[in-house]
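[09:14] KT: can someone run the structure on this one? pasting the chain below
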Amino acid sequence: MTQTVAFIGLGNMGGPMALNLVKAGFRVQAFDLNQTVLQQVASEGAIAASSALDAVSGADFVVSMLPAGKHVVGLYTDVKTALKPGVLVMDCSTIDAQSARTVGALLTQSGIDFVDAPVSGGVGGAKAGTLTFIVGGSSDNFAKAQPVLSAMGKNLFHAGDVGAGQIAKICNNMLLSILMVGTSEALQLGIDNGLDPKVLSEIMLKSSGRNWTLELYNPCPDVLPNVPSSNNYQGGFMVDLMAKDLGLASDCAQQSQSSTPMGALARNLYVQHQRQGNGKLDFSSIFNFFKKK
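[09:31] RB: done, structure tokens below
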């Protein structure tokens, strides 16, 4: 019997994720406030719901991909009574851990299972079905989520209890931002002193400075093909989103009294870059921050 997935939030990430569920054979009841993206996924096999309540009606699973914690809390406050017994809710948004725990408690009180499952891998990974899911929740719910998440990604990690997925995700993205800033300034230092960035990248890739951003997502234009930096920083993971995630990391560090000086510096740089009108560019565009004007 075909299982039904309600998918709410069809943005740059959510739309391709929903379509991968369609391709995997799930019946997908989709909803988004944006009628254009809703009709797009409907044209490719999903069922367009008239509302979030309509989308979750009769669903075996619910997946949400929303901008912020307040949207996730609001959604499940509104639809919790419409969820059928036995449904598993998977929130794949990147939000603060406390909001994830609030939603988990809210749904548990209604007898609904929940995991937070933020993703890593960007729009390219969403389209290719190769995302990484970092899951917070019980072991039983993690196992229950795997068939759905595996249709959208290739790496599934159980980070711990509800909220742990969000914390692991922001730790990863904080480190990613630091690596991107450091790689950008190192490459620009070489360029300013007459080095070819391709040659310098090859040297560092065989040396102790090797890292993911240098190897697979080089921020200097024309060093690697098929990355945002070689496409005027279009596509990929927007500066606006990185600034948001670094804000979440900062809030989390404050709550736990953690020392994150490098994360704080990276956040300041990304916010400044954002305020200079670069919010819609890929986050590797921080490279331009270090170029001589």
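[09:33] KT: thanks! The mean pLDDT is 97.
[09:34] RB: yep, looked fine to me
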